[in-house]
Amino acid sequence: MAKIVHKEVLAPQIKLMVVEAPWVAQKAKAGQFVVLRIHERGERVPLTIADFDPSQGTVTIIFQEVGKSTMLLGTLEEGDEILDFVGPLGKEIEERNFGHVVCIGGGVGIAPTYPKAKALKEKGNFVTSIIGARTKTMLFWEEKMQEVSDVLLVTTDDGTYGEKGFVTHVLERVLQKEKVDLVIAVGPVIMMKMVSMVTKPHGVKTLVSLNPIMVDGTGMCGCCRVTVDGKCKFTCVDGPVFDGHSVNFDELMARQRIYLEEEQRALDLWLTEQAKEEAFRVV
Amino acid sequence: MSSNRFFGRPKMPQRPPEERIRDFYEVPLGLPEWAAVEEAKRCLQCKNPQCVKGCPVEIDIPGFIRYLAEGQFGQAIAKIKEKNSLPAICGRVCPQEDQCEMQCVLGKKGQPIAIGYLERFLADYEREKGIQEPPLSKPRHRKVAVIGSGPAGLTCAGDLAKMGYQVTIFEALHAPGGVLIYGIPEFRLPKAIVAQEVRYVQSLGVNLELSRVIGKTYTLKDLHDAGYEAFFIGTGAGLPHFLEIPGENLNGICSANEFLTRSNLMKGYLFPQFDTPIKIGRRVAVIGGGNVAMDAARTALRLGAEEVCLVYRRTKKEMPARIEEVERAGEEGVNCIILTNPVRFVGNDNGWVTGIECIQMELGEPDESGRRKPVPVPGSEFIIPIDTVVVAIGQGPNPLFLESVPGLVLNRKGYIVADPETGATNLRGVFAGGDIVTGAATVISAMGAGKKAARAIERFLEMPQSFPQWG
Ligand SMILES: Cc1cc2nc3c(=O)[nH]c(=O)nc-3n(C[C@H](O)[C@H](O)[C@H](O)COP(=O)(O)OP(=O)(O)OC[C@H]3O[C@@H](n4cnc5c(N)ncnc54)[C@H](O)[C@@H]3O)c2cc1C
Ligand SMILES: Cc1cc2nc3c(=O)[nH]c(=O)nc-3n(C[C@H](O)[C@H](O)[C@H](O)COP(=O)(O)OP(=O)(O)OC[C@H]3O[C@@H](n4cnc5c(N)ncnc54)[C@H](O)[C@@H]3O)c2cc1C
Ligand code: SF4
Ligand code: SF4
Ligand code: FES
Hints:
The structure holds two protein chains of two kinds. The mean pLDDT of chain A is 92. Among the domains of chain A are: 2-89, Elongation Factor Tu (Ef-tu), domain 3 (Beta Barrel), CATH 2.40.30; 100-209, Nucleotide-binding domain of ferredoxin-NADP reductase (FNR) module (Rossmann fold), CATH 3.40.50.80. Chain A is α/β, with parallel strands linked by helices. Chain A is 31% helix and 31% strand. Chain A contains nine helices and 17 strands. By secondary structure, chain B is an alpha/beta fold. Chain B is 34% helix and 16% strand. In chain B, helix 2 (33-42) packs across helix 4. The longest helix of chain B has 20 residues, at 443-462. Classes of the chains: A alpha/beta, B alpha/beta. Chain A binds chain B through residues 23-24, 27, 37, 41-44, 68-69, 83-89, 215-216, 218-223, 225-227, 232, 237, 251, 254-255, 257-259, 262-263, 265-266, 269, and chain B through 172-174, 182, 210-213, 216-218, 238-240, 242, 244, 248-249, 251-252, 254-255, 257-258, 261-262, 266-267, 271-277, 279, 350-351, 398-400. The structure holds flavin-adenine dinucleotide (2 copies), iron/sulfur cluster (SF4) (2 copies) and FE2/S2 (inorganic) cluster. The site of one flavin-adenine dinucleotide (FAD) has 26 residues of chain A, from strand 4, strand 6, helix 2, helix 3 and helix 9.
């Protein structure tokens, strides 16, 4: 059981929770994730550790409500408990001075970018961060990212805030003007794929954090397998961070769609039930 | 004791195939009381019982059978529990035909005593009556950590608790039981039974910490610093092997571990009442011929597949699965495609599997396992059209924990090297047993290893100077 001690709505459908889980907080490193289960019938949901505080024993998670489980999680309030909260899982990123690091966060991916930028900044890297969202209201943690970055660049797809366009446009410009030693990108798979395509001709090492569908998160089921450099890797134990130039992104995108039909069914059913309950309350 | 001269070995009553493939309820129904008692009377009460030698945990088999024949069920179960804290499970999933029953003298000329059925009968009888809380032994204030709650871990923990130690089991998943809970399906081992056996172990004073991945959440060193003086590693062989042939990451192909975990642990067969989905096509192929493959095939049928086939590269005779299970799968309509090996998967433009390209095999010379080695017949490739594939070709050691223990000696295949008599590893105070030492084996051998290790741990804690150091 892990108690929710703080909750914030960062953007429409994007929520932050600070959870009491000292067993995770004490060991967490940038790049790692947790798997949680909300209730007895729930699925195991992987979420990146967006921040952690070993002294308080807390872990911060940020999630986008995309389906039943994340929406249900969003209904929990401060004081509520999450049934299972296991971690930290996966491998941490290498924390050392690379020189100039560009950290890119797209959409809800801004959250998992933060601990990486923070850790690398602490190691003395010059950190340029690029964060992007569809529109202004979807953007969050600009100030926090500013704190851990030497330069922060902001984009929105529709131009309602910062620069109009995709993070990749800004990245291309940075790569042309400056020497970059490492790029780290977290966001939708398509974004990570585009970022890797942009950095490839520049020969800049690029790390991406993959989010395949998972079950156990401990290397037991193989559901999270991805092809990296032609070899089969398990994201939950070998990753989640991999070399973007070696990842087969198209395969990953196809694999993320395996349960679309079932997920929609679960969501529809849940929404109908919610609506019924709501109707009762009104009556 | 009056002997049974009228009845032979009883047949296990089971539900008819057409009924049972529509649900996940248990298939064999258990012996009625009279049949169990009659069967017990058939036992010769050998002075030098061979059956005991076939049981990895050395249950006093004639002892419990005598009580059973006399109608003293309580005493009979107590006799079993002296050695085996999980009888309801062993009575169901032990490969008895290769163990206790294979050694029974009655089997030499006729039918061996149905030891497994009797064990199951008594365990079920006790469950219905309510389990007796065991008297606790004098507490010894020393802490032992058990990593993994599979049969090896549960047995080791139970035995250590009986000796009075303070035992905590750390389990990575959210439910205890290891393969018993995530692998073996409900229709073969009802989860309520596993839960009850776990509660029994807990009633002995064992502490259970779920959702704690050792190597990640805590390391052995963290536990040592927290006052744990000895460790038992029972993390199992949970790493699924894949065929490593082209197309294996197409949608619709998964490991048996994933398929069974979704169905059993996550209750995917009850989706959408439970949130974890499970995908099942019209035509399902399961690749492999072991217990795991049988479980996957029979699960696929129950999930509504119209056709389920097993693709196996040798013949039925070489299948490592229990005969009983192969037969039940056959009765239920699982089709065996033998002497066939997949060479690649074919898929459609959306990334879904549509078929398996296979090659015909023939049996050649015996290999190191003594079974005749299958060799491909050149030019015999053909395609099996399929919607879902479950790969059940075996498991290996999961490196997650092992990587976190520097210096622990592993063998060539990556399993822990441990003394077969004590479970001692090369690290002092660290013991191991079950599948993580032997590779995928059986529930009862894992329990046997847990038992031996518990004894060794006691010796290590009480007389450390006498405990041999090696490695
Ligand atoms: C290592 C890892 C870290 C992650 N970190 C975060 C995070 O910090 N914040 C966050 O919002 N999300 C994160 N995700 C994704 C998150 O796990 C999924 O969004 C969530 O499981 C969806 O569950 P659901 O029931 O709400 O939606 P579902 O109904 O299951 O799915 C809705 C949609 O999301 C897609 N989806 C389902 N599961 C996943 C998945 N595991 N990853 C990506 N897409 C998925 C589906 O294809 C579908 O389009 C992470 C995933 C992984 C593997
Ligand atoms: C589908 C299937 C069917 C089978 N059918 C039979 C049968 O009919 N009869 C039979 O005798 N045998 C059968 N077997 C084999 C039998 O189940 C195993 O040999 C036995 O379970 C091994 O026990 P174990 O305790 O060594 O490991 P497991 O049962 O594998 O348990 C290991 C436990 O350790 C946990 N763990 C792993 N790593 C960590 C970590 N780092 N930290 C904390 N916990 C961890 C795992 O989550 C798991 O719960 C079957 C196996 C499978 C997969
Ligand atoms: S535990 Fe297994 S091997 Fe031992 S007596 Fe019981 S059924 Fe036979
Ligand atoms: S060997 Fe057979 S007959 Fe003899 S005691 Fe054992 S079960 Fe009974
Ligand atoms: S999620 Fe099961 S192996 Fe990675």
